[in-house]
TrEMBL record:
Start and end residues of each Alpha-D-phosphohexomutase alpha/beta/alpha domain: 8-144, 174-265, 272-378
Record protein name field: Phosphomannomutase
Species the sequence originates in: Flavobacterium croceum DSM 17960
Coiled-coil ranges from the UniProt annotation: none
Cofactor(s) the protein requires to work: Mg(2+)
Annotated InterPro entries: A-D-PHexomutase_a/b/a-I (IPR005844), A-D-PHexomutase_a/b/a-I/II/III (IPR016055), A-D-PHexomutase_a/b/a-II (IPR005845), A-D-PHexomutase_a/b/a-III (IPR005846), A-D-PHexomutase_C (IPR005843), A-D-PHexomutase_C_sf (IPR036900), A-D-PHexomutase_CS (IPR016066), Alpha-D-phosphohexomutase_SF (IPR005841)
Amino acid sequence: MTLIKSISGIRGTIGGEVGTNLTPVDAVKFASAYGTFLKQNNKSKLSKLKVVIGRDARISGPMIHNLVVNTLLGLGIDVIDLGLSTTPTVEVAVPMEQADGGIILTASHNPKQWNALKLLNEKGEFLSGKDGEVILALAEAESFEFADVDSLGEITQNDAYMDIHIDEVLNLPLVDADLVKTKQFKVVVDGVNSSGGIIIPKLLEQMGVECIKLYCEPNGHFPHNPEPLKEHLADICELVVKENADFGIVVDPDVDRLAFISNDGEMFGEEYTLVAVADYVLSKTPGNTVSNMSSSRALRDITIKHNETYQASAVGEVNVVELMKKNKAVLGGEGNGGIIYPEIHYGRDALVGVALFLTYLAQQDKTVAQLRASYPQYYMSKNKIELTPQIDVDAVMKTIAEKYTHENISTIDGVKIDFENEWVHLRKSNTEPIIRIYTEAPTQPDADNLAIRFVDELKTIAGI
């Protein structure tokens, strides 16, 4: 059982002991720290502060939701309660409501025993690392001042934002629902029994797509591991073929990650969700792209094909967004199926990805499998090695960086070495003595062999 405190929020397993799991006490403490942070940063504001809150369909959602909402009310903060929602929907709602922040209650792709508080600023974007550290310090100090009885916050229920979010997506200039309707697509949707089972079918229906629902009851009982990886998705792969569907859509519980299943029942590949959407966006909109360092080189290749510039950020959505703003990128995201399209908001959004992909597919005289085959072919390997606490991980990484100084190397987030036809990215965990090893190459054996090579090198340097 685990409780993980980080600059992006707090997540953990439900139940157990205070301070080691996500208990009611921990939820209240962290919500108090976030509310206190907002109050300290808005002392000049004459009216009450306002926070938007939404949750995914996890079994623990209503409990954590009630604790967090009432904690904010106790601090004298008004709450706009979206109820069952998605991460990108809350991100869209915060600036629309002119709120001071937002909280999404979701543990994203983690199994059902997990939950979390994801924290947003007044722009509906994830907090900076600096702000996250302040909130962690406030939680540690437990120095909170609650409102008196005449100054308590008020709650407003608003269940319209899923529909508002869909409208915002359909109104994007690069989304052509009328064209999509003419194609009479048939699509299977795996909503992993969470919020995606409501919002994705609604979007598809408004785009004239026949939707076959699989695991779309928002009851929080995940029918498989909710991370949208191949080994968890046998049911939808089989159903796409059985139904002769054009493709399949898979989202995680909070609907910020997106994976496609090709018409032949094979994985389109999470890494290639961003690649396909980028190919479409760049064909219509000149501009740069950004993904994190552990994402596929295919995005770089597609960007270059359109005579634009690609750059890689440190891992983490907040880092991707920061570099996107700096480079004025028209599209960005992460290789886990996260699409960030600034035309609507700076956050990963599966709805945007679905709508743009459908529009692009409607313009192509290709099946989804043929579209996937048209992109540069890369294969990834993801590994890790566990080190004893006595080993100086930073020293190990420094030795690797010095050994490969003659290669194209970056040390802004661990060590990434770009070889001519392949790359390796080594990152240390912030919470345990582990080095994560990501590799990519033109074939799976090449990617696996590169990973084995660096596992061996790291172990030799560490003396294990």
